[in-house]
Design a protein that fits this description.
The chain has a domain at 108-331. The chain has a two-stranded antiparallel sheet. A two-stranded antiparallel ribbon has the order 3-4. The protein has helices at residues 2-12, 38-62, 73-96, 110-136, 155-191, 196-214, 223-243, 247-263, 287-290, 300-321; strands at residues 29-30, 35-36, 140-147, 277-283. The protein has 341 residues and is mainly alpha-helical. Strand 1 (29-30) and strand 2 (35-36) form a beta hairpin. Helix 4 (110-136) runs parallel beside helix 8 (247-263) and helix 5 (155-191) packs antiparallel against helix 8 (247-263).
């Protein structure tokens, strides 16, 4: 009987767990996800961006006739930068992240366009609120309407340049800071034992800080403007986190800039847009509220507008999805089914 019991115990004993193996590739390659680790995916994206920017510059230098248009020089330069930015993001998602465009929030379906339309309306609404507040307080005075650099050119044609400029800027910066950096940072934090939602929050803060620091070199930038731009990065991230789609932040980014610079004549992140403006202004009032030479983004009115925008984005996400929750699928590994947005 004792022998039988011993044999039974031996037969049912669990097999020994093999020791984890380590390889030279482990710091670079995630064997479970079958792709590079997050840091190397980000660096790979940067390398792609540099190579494609170089190619775009060569084309612009040696084939200038391809870009000989009536658009402003700034708009032409923006288009030349937008092409490699979008191309490198698409290539990085497919080749480095090994994900579909739909998985990262770029499925251009009805829901995506509805989010984009809401974001565009919100950007115009928030900047209109800032202008109305400054005008009511006597901090801004209109000096002209429908201004353009060349009086012989129609206003509609002159307005095309800033429209293209801010379309490109909105798409470019959202693909870089939200679509690539924030999402890959979150995936890296998740691999370090963060939960997906905590990882996305940490990545939002870090990528938004970088967003603010990138604008630190703009004309008229201050510590306050850098902090406010970082908070604007959090606002733009909110729509992505709550819907899982990039339509809302792209739409918001486009019209926030367009209405700020070319509808109401404010400086845009310190840059005075000289193309067509619907309203030309002279600005007065305390710089702490108006943002001074940097524009509304550096002022308390801009901060209030961001808080209002954050509340409206939360309401939109609740209306669209029926709940208010971070889309954890944005930080989950390749091969994991995406959550329904």
């Amino acid at each position: 009987m004792a022998e039988d019991a011993a044999e039974g115990a031996t037969a049912t004993a669990p097999a020994p767990v093999p020791k984890a193996t380590w390889s030279l590739a482990a710091p670079f390659w995630n064997s479970q996800e079958r792709r590079l680790r997050a840091l190397w995916r980000i660096l790979g994206y940067v390398a792609l961006l540099v190579v494609l920017f170089w190619a775009s510059n060569m084309i612009g230098r040696y084939a200038p006739a391809l870009f000989d248009t009536t658009l402003s020089r700034l708009a032409r330069r923006t288009i030349l930068s937008a092409i490699p930015t979008v191309a490198s993001a698409v290539l990085a998602v497919r080749l480095l992240d090994r994900l579909t465009l739909a998985r990262v929030g770029l499925r251009l379906d009805r829901d995506w366009w509805l989010d984009c339309a809401f974001g565009m309306g919100l950007g115009g609404l928030l900047m209109s609120g800032i202008f109305a507040a400054e005008q009511a307080l006597g901090w801004v005075a209109m000096t002209g309407v429908l201004e353009r650099p060349d009086p012989q050119q129609s206003f509609r044609l002159a307005f095309v340049s800033p429209l293209i400029l801010f379309l490109c800027v909105g798409i470019d910066e959202e693909l870089v800071f939200r679509g690539m950096l924030m999402r890959n940072m979150a995936a890296g934090f998740t691999a370090r034992r963060f939960g997906p939602q905590a990882a996305l929050l940490a990545a939002t803060l870090l990528s938004s800080l970088l967003f603010g620091l990138v604008h630190r070199t703009n004309p008229g930038a201050t510590t306050t403007s850098t902090v406010n731009i970082a908070l604007a990065g959090v606002l733009l991230s909110e729509g992505y986190l709550l819907t899982g789609r990039m339509g809302l932040p792209i739409g918001l980014h486009i019209t926030w800039n367009l209405f700020q610079g070319n509808v109401y004549g404010f400086p845009v992140s310190g840059v005075r847009v000289l193309d067509a403006r619907m309203i030309a202004i002279e600005q007065h009032g305390p710089a702490a509220w108006t943002g001074g030479a940097f524009g509304p983004e550096a002022g308390l009115l801009g901060l209030i507008a961001m808080l209002v925008g954050a509340a409206l984005i939360a309401g939109w996400a609740r209306l669209r999805t029926g709940r208010l929750a971070i889309q954890a699928s944005l930080a989950e590994p390749a091969g994991t089914p995406a959550l329904a947005a």
